[in-house]
Design brief:
- The complex is a heterodimer of chains A (about 290) and B (about 180).
- With about 290 residues, chain A is of the alpha+beta class.
- Chain A contains seven helices and twelve strands.
- Chain A has helices spanning about 30-45, 55-60, 70-85, 95-100, 145-160, 240-250, 255-265, and strands at about 5-10, 10-20, 65, 125, 130-135, 165-170, 175, 180-185, 195-200, 200-210, 230-235, 265-270.
- In chain A, the strands form three sheets. Chain A has a seven-stranded antiparallel β-sheet, with helices on one face. In chain A, strands 3-5-4 form a three-stranded antiparallel β-sheet, covered by helices on one side.
- In chain B, about 25% of the residues lie in helices and about 30% in strands.
- Chain B is built from five helices and seven strands; from the N terminus they run H-E-H-E-H-E-E-E-E-H-E-H.
- In chain B, a hairpin with a 5-residue loop joins strand 5 (about 100-105) and strand 6 (about 115-125).
- The radius of gyration of chain B is 19 Å and the shape is globular.
- The N and C termini of chain B lie far apart (about 65 Å).
- Classes of the chains: A alpha+beta (about 290), B alpha+beta (about 180).
- Chains A and B meet through strand 1, strand 2, helix 1, strand 8 and strand 9 of A and helix 1, helix 2, strand 6 and strand 7 of B.
- Strand 8 (about 180-185) of chain A pairs parallel with strand 7 (about 155) of chain B.
């Protein structure tokens, strides 16, 4: 069996090798295990929940330089850059606001000071080659990007191992490469499934938001308040970008959403309202 | 019919009829033997046994893990390499509101999780899963059996599923390890 699933990143991660390419048969399972390990490593580095993660060390060492793993630096750079160029519609500095809403647990170091900013700016994060620091008391959360980033790192690992085609689905953050075309359905915030077609050489992410008291909004708007219920799907070249751009999509008005996302490297996907019932679509290539 | 930008239209055969998708998302990943090999690649032998848990032990498990141990019998395998104990391989099921999951956990002799693999995953309507005949249908299946449904099951993006059930289950297995699996 060349498809496996493990509980990681707080969800179920599924990986399938579609075309094993240069691999020998006795390597299949080791390579799958290696891809899961790559995802687990990102989880351990960038988890907001884990006390010992790079992210927790950075958040708890306010104003001091913290040495970080190269992959943590890489993800932090992407998050910072997107916070900047998206003008804060994606924002990795709103950890405190999310903790206040109860969507993330309060870390134990939160009591070390009382002047946390509920939301910050991109330039609150200073990054050097091997270290980073926070200039103001903000809490970084990479929840909006790290799952996709983990998928990308695992895909890169599979490519380096010589796997010709594979896909990964990390709780809805999906990336596929090579010859495989995988059928996709999107589950909206009401639990409704929408059949979308096939995905090839691209990444897809979906964020759903709820407006109930029970789910205090996993995605916060520009004003650090939960947004109205909705489903936001984006296609991009890489999973980190698709993942992060779903948060941008949430924060944009409908008339500007498509254009803004395209400038940031993503395609906004509107949900199909009808289930395709015939094969009459003209075959279409991805725009990326 | 309209195109969805970014998606490639699929021939009809590849698109699962919505009614099947909605009824049950069923997927098999590894057989027990395959999972043993994945989680303990160096083991030369797996010795099977069953732990019979007393009521007292089950109460202890609840206390340690915070989750109830329903089954008084816990199947497990000792993974050994040339007579040396590498760890324990345990198979467990968790039943969630919308899913039924079989998984395997590898636990080291000193009680650390070496790895977890999902053996099978079935998504279903909440009501369906509590029917005993439904459960029997799946428990009678060997994991190598293929379900026809699988082929056309789409990847689902959105409404991220929590793996809390499984992580709670693993806590339970660690508690079982602590109170009922003696170290060699």
């Amino acid at each position: 069996m060349l498809k496996r699933m493990r509980p990681l990143l707080g969800t179920f991660v599924e990986i399938q090798l579609v075309d094993t390419g240069a691999l020998a048969e006795n390597q299949y399972q080791d390579v799958l295990s290696g891809a899961f390990s790559a995802i687990e490593q990102i989880h351990n580095l960038l988890s907001f929940h884990q006390h010992s993660s790079d992210l927790s060390r950075l958040n708890s060492a306010q104003n001091q330089w913290v040495p970080l793993h190269p992959l943590s630096i890489q993800c932090l750079k992407l998050a910072r850059a997107l916070t900047r160029i998206s003008k804060g519609t994606f924002n990795c500095t709103l950890g405190k606001a999310i903790v206040d809403k109860g969507a993330l647990p309060a870390p134990d170091y939160i009591n070390t000071r009382s002047d946390w900013l509920s939301i910050g700016n991109w330039d609150d994060i200073e990054i050097q080659t091997q270290q980073a620091r926070l200039r103001r008391p903000v809490l970084i959360t990479l929840d909006g990007i790290a799952k996709g980033f983990a998928v990308d790192i695992a895909i890169r690992y599979l490519q380096h191992q010589g796997v010709a085609s594979a896909w990964i689905n990390a709780g809805g953050d999906i990336r596929v490469y090579g010859s495989a075309i995988i059928p996709i359905s999107i589950k909206d915030h009401l639990g409704q499934l929408h059949t979308m077609g096939g995905l090839q050489n691209a990444a897809l992410a979906t964020s759903t938001t709820h407006a109930s008291a029970q789910y205090p909004g996993l995605v916060l708007g520009n004003n650090a308040e939960p947004v109205a219920a909705g489903t936001w799907s984006v296609i991009a070249n890489s999973a980190w970008r698709a993942d992060a751009l779903t948060k941008v999509a949430v924060n944009l008005a409908e008339h500007e959403r498509g254009d803004c996302l395209r400038k940031l490297g993503g395609n906004w996907i509107t949900l199909a309202t009808d289930t395709p019932s015939s094969a009459t679509f003209p075959r279409q290539q991805l725009s990326e | 019919m309209r195109n969805i930008p970014g998606f490639i239209s699929l021939p009809l055969a590849l698109i699962a009829p919505a009614v099947i998708v909605n009824a049950a998302h069923a997927e098999d990943y590894l057989s027990i033997a395959q999972a043993q090999k994945v989680l303990f690649p160096n083991a030369s032998i797996f010795l099977e046994s069953a732990i019979h848990l007393s009521d007292e032990q089950r109460a202890q498990i609840k206390k340690i893990a915070g989750v109830r141990q329903r089954n008084p019998i816990q199947q497990n395998w000792r993974a050994e390499q040339d007579g040396k104990l590498l760890g324990y391989f345990l198979v467990d099921d968790v039943i969630g509101k919308h899913e039924f999951i079989s998984y395997a956990a590898a636990i080291s002799p000193d009680g650390k999780v070496i790895g977890i693999e999902i053996l099978s995953y079935r998504e279903t309507h909440g009501g369906q899963i509590r029917k005993p005949e439904w459960r029997q249908y799946f428990s009678g299946k060997t994991l190598n059996d293929k379900f026809k449904l699988n082929k056309d099951i789409p990847n689902i993006s959105g409404a991220t599923l929590s793996c809390r059930n499984v992580t709670d289950g693993v806590k339970r297995l660690l508690a079982i390890h602590k109170i009922a699996l003696t170290q060699a």
